[in-house]
Fold MarR family winged helix-turn-helix transcriptional regulator.
Amino acid sequence: MTRRDLAAMIAPLQRALIAAEMPVLRAHGLSMWGYVVLSALDSEPIRTQAALAEFIGADKSRIIGVLDELEDQGFLQRTRDPADRRARLLAITDEGRRKRNAVQAEIQRNEDRLLGRLPLDDRSAFLRALATLSALPPQ
C-alpha cells in the first residue's frame, strides 16, 4: 500500500491550525505576521530588520508595516544601529513578550485539544518527529 505525500497530509492540517489561530490572534489584536515577528524576536537574537525578514522568510519591505504596528502597540522597539545608521536594531519589549506568551498559551491550549485525539504515545512520537523534520535545513 502506498501512503499519501507528506505535503498532501500536512497542508490540510496546516490550514486547520491557521484557521484555529485566527480568532485567538484577533482577540489579542495581533496579525499572524505580528505573532510571527514577536515569536522570532523572543526566541532568537535577531538584531536588524533585514535579518528578521530573512529569518521569518518575509520580504524586507513586507514587514515594515507589521513592525510599525508592533512598535505603535509597544510590543517592540526599533533603534538606529550606531554602526550603520541605515539599519534599525529590533528588540521585543516586556509588554510584547507578555502578549506573545498569552497568545501562544491560548493557541497551544487549542492544539492540546487536537492532540488529545491521539493516544499519548502517538502524540509524543508525533511531536518528536515534527520537531525533527521542522528543524531540517531547507533543500
